[in-house]
Amino acid sequence: MTAPTPAGPLSPAERAAERYTDGEWHRLHPATPLLRGGIVFIAVLGFVLSNLRERIIGFFVGGDEFRGGDPLDEIYDRGWEGWALLALAIVLVACIGAFYLAWRMHSFRITEDAVEVRSGILFRTQRKARLDRIQGINVVRPVLARIFGAAKLDITVAGHDANVQLAYLGSALADGLRSDVLRLASGVRAAEAAEAAAASGTVPVPGAPAGTGSRAQAVGDLVNRRVNEFLAPELDPAAAPPESVVKIPPLRLFGSLILSGFTVFLLFVVALLVWGTATGSVWLAFVVLPGLIGSASFYINRFTKSLRYSIAGTPDGVRVGFGLLSTSNETLPPGRIHAVEVLQPLLWRPFGWWQIRIDTAGRSREKGAAGQANTTMLPVGDAEDVARVLALVLPGFATPERRALIVDGMRSRGRDDWTGSPRRAAWLRPFSWQRTGYRLLDGAVLLRRGFVWRSLALVPLARLQSLELQQGPVERALRLAEARFHTVSGPVRPRLAAMDAEEGVRLFQTVAAGAVAAAESDSSHRWGRVEEPPAPPAPPIAPIAPIAPTASSTREGDPS
């Protein structure tokens, strides 16, 4: 038997958004047609008319009667001002009618178990996202939409091209709907009926002008709201505890961009250009210089789009936000992260910088910070930032003991209490064989590898899809094996190569048993509900006694 966890008081935005989760069909923001391409259409139409106006007038008048000149003067001389205005009015009315019809036919509804969107005039489409399959919710505010006080609500669902997007909604409404959808998905119902009844009629709707105010006051309030939206911080201070917020200093962000692989490529191109100039190959300048000039925009865009980057823990999951002019704010509910990788490029090692990537079953349509994929949870951070972010995405690693274990996995050169590779693995991994190793914890496996490019992968056993033990002919001769941990598609590739074959069999059987037990006890898809009474904690995974490797287990997936 489950019961909802105690919920705090609802914000005005959440109160105002409750009427949109009644299971009925609702329409989007009135400016949606313009924001979804109407402004671009009008601009293109104006460009075409301004450049082809002579030919258009000549088509209606005739080639013999109209031989050039300014069309506006010709219309005035012939007395066609009324007809011209009528034609312009017909075109505008037709465009506005098409936009209005598209807006009327585009609606959404939110029920207790799904979010649905239907759209289209001639060809109707309907998309549906189940709440228990939601992987994340992203609130995106492009700079033009912020002028209109609108935002996009991108609901990420597991599966290829399965996302549902509500574009556009009122900015405050988008925040409120995100909270309401997450509350429904977590198993927490709306606020108590007594509180709702007591607060009915007293909570003002965000963005609605006071009924007794003047029109000038309403316009002033609207301007103030738009200014406050532009100047407001990316993350509301009341949405997350301050100690959970991780931010990236601009100087560190700039340094990480300079010390990137793209910079190394640019240095190589510049050296090639200098060599070509010295040897008289002037043609290299015409080939290389345009690319070098365009590289400046690469750094500028990546830097500006990553400003105000922040990661914080909220009651509904990890909140990741960024952006200066166009902002993005995504929430990942608990249990949606299938694998985590902490890695360190070679050029970052002197500064102690790291990056964190994740695997999720679904991805937002919008790009992440600096144009990177949304699977990049921390573009750049120090060891303390890594520990805080891992405590957010995997709460079990928030203890000091777990933090020490993470530091060992990140910095250790091997030969410690991790289960590592045997000495004969140096034939295949001459530099990294000592660092290669794994550790099993309650509900997760940690994989450490890499000497030049360090990497630490963490895989929750409840999210593990399958485990493969592979052994090629060279590995068979050295009595080695490679374990591959299969999760959903993403940038993280959890694997452990050049490990002892017998140790691989023990790891295979231990992880397989632990994954089944973790999946049976997992309830993270309903993170807002608690068990009554609470279930006893699962016993720690005990290692299985050594057994001799068998052909079927050590050679599973053998490509030979």
Automatic annotation (TrEMBL):
Keywords: Membrane, Transmembrane, Transmembrane helix. Residues 533-543 have a biased composition (Pro residues). Signal peptide: none annotated. It comes from the Bacteria. Residues 522-532 have a biased composition (Basic and acidic residues). The keyword Transmembrane helix applies. Residues 520-560 are annotated as: Disordered. The chain crosses the membrane at residues 34-52, 82-103, 253-275, 281-300. Residues 103-177, 308-388, 433-508 form the YdbS-like PH domain. The keyword Transmembrane helix applies. This is PH domain-containing protein. The lineage of its organism: Bacteria, Bacillati, Actinomycetota, Actinomycetes, Micrococcales.
